[in-house]
Amino acid sequence: MDFGFSEDQDAIREAAGRLLDENATLVGAHLLLNENPDGFDGDLWSKLAEGGWLGIGIPEEYGGSGMGAVELAVLAEEIGRTLACIPFAQAMYLVAPAVVQHGSDAQKSALLPAIASGKKIVTAALSENGGIAPGVITAKVSGGLIQGVKSPVPDGGNADVALVAALDDTGQPGLYLVDLTGPGVEREALDATDRTRPMARLTFDGAPADALTGANGAAIKKLVDGAAILVAFEQIGLAGRALAVSSDYAKERKAFGRPIGGFQAIKHRLADMFAKIELARSNAFFGAWALASDDARLAEAAACARLTALDACQYAGEETIQIHGGIGITWIADPHLFVRRGWHLKALLGPAAIWRERLIQALPEGNS
Question: What domain range is 235 assigned to?
Fold first, then answer.
């Protein structure tokens, strides 16, 4: 199998990277963190919509470009690399795939063009107390109305529609579309670690819920596995940028009359960062292939990608602070941006302990 990218995919990376480099800077992230309580870069979101980037994984008949998982992974890595402050992950890794795979014609026509055009912000409300569906679902739907609490929900304060995991009258898990601007919905902003990716608690008290047919427990697990692979690419982009920033700083910062990058201790830190990133990249490549080809090893590939990307992302953030020294822990410096975004990406789909268990479950008998 070929884990390399095609010329077209490299062209997508170059075009997306150029747009994001021009509009999603670290200076801009600092400004949003300080001045925008919503943490949402509306101008960048509009430009991505105008360029067709929000429809990259949506079929052409619904306003998208009809590309696949690999192209979406390429875009995810660029978004991670630039620390773009946009509500992208939940919409593109969870909501759009769920509607494409399980939505009715009416649901697809109503929601997918609005996602692709950027006219509606959508999110996925799967988490309950930090766990991920379907194993910890307590929200319930009866008679088309949902009751329950979802927290934390990324972009829950900004979103128009949420994809919600809930149990039906028989206790079976499913996915439902809920209008967050309608009745029976209460939102509460949470104090997010990364305020450029805000979180909220959503309380549903009799809110109308529109079921996605066939989105059962197995489908939810598969959806989360696909999202884990795409988030892994975003984490790899983030960790790679942290490494680049640290390397540049180590070349400029001097101690005892020479750049600190010349000291063995700093070289080892940078080398360890690189090694963890490359291991995560290898697993993410395998995951993207499994997702694009619908391979039977998707669950195993997703868990491996998630675990190694979590490790690389957290290590890169922590080491970036260490390499920057005293200034690394200050608010005006860049390192905390990487740490905050890393913790946010960890919160999206749960910590490593959850994914170690999923990996054990996914391994063939005799290999666990």
Answer: 218-362
Is 2 inside any structural domain?
no
Burial classification of residue 265, based on how many CB atoms lie within 10 Å of its CB (0-12 exposed, 13-18 middle, 19 or more buried): exposed
**233, 284 in Cβ contact below 8 A?**
yes
CB 63 within 8 Å of CB 116: yes
Mark whether 233 and 203 lie in a shared domain: no
Q: What is the mean pLDDT of residues 28-44?
A: 83
CATH code for the domain in which residue 191 is found: 2.40.110.10
Strand 122-125 vs strand 161-167: parallel, antiparallel, or unpaired?
A: parallel
Q: How far is CA 61 from CA 68, 99, 169, 217, 245, in A?
A: 15, 14, 34, 28, 41
Confidence (pLDDT) at 2: 57
Angle between helices 298-324 and 264-293 (to 10 degrees): 160
pLDDT at 134: 61
Q: What does the alpha-carbon distance between residue 34 and residue 188 come to, in Å, rounded to a whole number?
A: 20
8-state DSSP, 160 = S
